[in-house]
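Aim 2, interim progress: modelling of the zinc ion-bound target.
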Amino acid sequence: MAVPKKRTPSSKKGMRRSHHGRKSMGLSLCPSCKSPALSHKACPTCGTYRGRTVIAVTKKAEKMEEKRKDKARKTGA
Ligand SMILES: [Zn+2]
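Predicted structure of the complex, ligand included:
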């Protein structure tokens, strides 16, 4: 098995890891509701993509609320 001849100094590790930082997601504004959303994806706030409604956001929100209530009921009892 190949073994490194010398230990890697902390400065060299730092140089290598200088590129490991997280990059920003590059959010763009939704044309219909002006909230930040990923480009080429349906808007999570209003559920539209290229002017068409593709996700029923209100239905989704209702479902999430129902789920949360159910969970609270389970933990409470
Ligand atoms: Zn939107």
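The mean pLDDT is 89. Residues 57-76 form the longest helix (20 residues).
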